[in-house]
Amino acid sequence: MSEDEALKTFRRDIADWIEQHYPSELRQTPGADGSDPQQTKTSEQNWLQIMAEQGLLAPTWPKEYGGAGFSVDQARVLAQEQRRAKVRAIPISAGLSLLGPVLLEHGTPEQKQQHLPGIANGAVFWCQGYSEPGSGSDLASLSTRAELVGDDFIVNGQKIWTSHADDADWMFCLVRTDPNASKHEGISFLLIDMATPGISVSPIRLISGPSAFCQTFFDDVRVGKANLMGQLGQGWTLAKQLLQHERQALGSIGRGDARRALTLPELAALEIGTNAQGHIADVTIRNEVAQCELDSLALRTTMSRSADQARAGQNSAHIASMLKLYGSELTNRRHELMMSIRGTDGVGWDGPGYSPAAMRTTRQWLRAKGNSIEGGTNEIQRNVIAKRVLGLPD
Ligand SMILES: Cc1cc2nc3c(=O)[nH]c(=O)nc-3n(C[C@H](O)[C@H](O)[C@H](O)COP(=O)(O)OP(=O)(O)OC[C@H]3O[C@@H](n4cnc5c(N)ncnc54)[C@H](O)[C@@H]3O)c2cc1C
């Protein structure tokens, strides 16, 4: 059987499996009027569990670490079939999308055995301890201190903007282990159990109400040296590698995959109506929707070319910055457009008279604003592209 035939069979099997197992209650429009948010959340968790049991949350990871052991081509087929079946994109932990790939490459055998299965089955929730007050864009200036005393690091300092730290079981964390080394060389990468005495987490309330953001404080926190990932003082290399995964993931949101019951053209047709030819009735909105769809297609094509180049070992280390910049701007453009399409419903927030579907559009529009900041701001990505890709002077 040729590779193509094997993949075709694989594709059919995957499509059948999704058809059989994807919960029917998730097939309706997210946030549709009449849908119960609590029930939806439970169904989404059940679906994640069903996926995890087959290793499908981490399809390319080895089976011994809870993955499915798929080849890159098989993983691509899985993603395509999920998109085709409009399987919802459910937020996954930073452990799966960010830490996992770096842990697979740089973790000790014990660290991999301890952490990867819990990440792959979604049982252990991770947060990212990078940013500090005063060290965001200039991350390498971070000052959370970790001093090696016997077999333990003693950690003192503060992190900020730690998304979901109040729900997290573990944190991957950048700490300064050598204050005398140059700023990039004195940093190490620690895996920290959030239940360790001396850690306190304080959620941050925003102008819009409660948020996922937290401040995390370390007060003489003892972390065994077995939890150091990579070499002492070499954490910056791992940190940068992880940021590339983060930037790539943020860029991929811009593809606008149809992983929701209503695509942008469908929403426009529903809200605005169609003309006799079945086209979106408002010509300006129609043009903007078409442009957005074309740009998403171009981004998808660029991402798959970049994946091919990565497999051939030809990728620029800075492609992630380009994808993050373009993808996050495209996401924001798409959400602006969805708001225009919703018209006055789009400015709704809460209370009687607002439909859950319209509120969801508003919340997503607001959330998308953060895409241009998280994972390194878009200004920083522009700097990276200017210096490292275009070779422009400082
Ligand atoms: C939704 C969201 C989730 C996040 N989750 C996490 C998390 O889980 N863990 C974590 O550690 N962090 C997290 N962050 C924090 C994020 O990494 C930082 O906000 C980001 O790196 C910017 O740092 P800062 O907020 O300190 O801004 P600053 O670095 O103070 O920047 C302020 C402004 O100045 C600009 N600027 C700064 N330096 C330059 C320069 N050299 N050239 C041009 N412009 C510049 C920036 O672009 C920005 O507009 C999250 C942020 C968001 C929005």
Descriptive labels:
single chain; 394 residues; alpha+beta; Butyryl-Coa Dehydrogenase, subunit A, domain 1; Butyryl-CoA Dehydrogenase, subunit A, domain 2; Butyryl-CoA Dehydrogenase, subunit A, domain 3; 3 domains; 4-stranded mixed β-sheet; 4-stranded antiparallel β-sheet; 11 helices; 46% helix; binds flavin-adenine dinucleotide
Task: Characterise this structure.
It is built from 11 helices and 8 strands. With 394 residues, it is of the alpha+beta class. It has 3 domains: 3-90, Orthogonal Bundle (Butyryl-Coa Dehydrogenase, subunit A, domain 1), CATH 1.10.540; 126-233, Butyryl-CoA Dehydrogenase, subunit A, domain 2; 254-389, Butyryl-CoA Dehydrogenase, subunit A, domain 3. The strands form 2 sheets. A 4-stranded mixed sheet has the order 1-4-5-8. A hairpin with a 2-residue loop joins strand 2 (145-149) and strand 3. The longest helix has 29 residues, at 283-311. It is globular. The mean pLDDT is 90. Flavin-adenine dinucleotide (FAD) is lined by residues 127-131, 136-137, 161-163, 370, 373-374, 376-377, 379-380, 383.
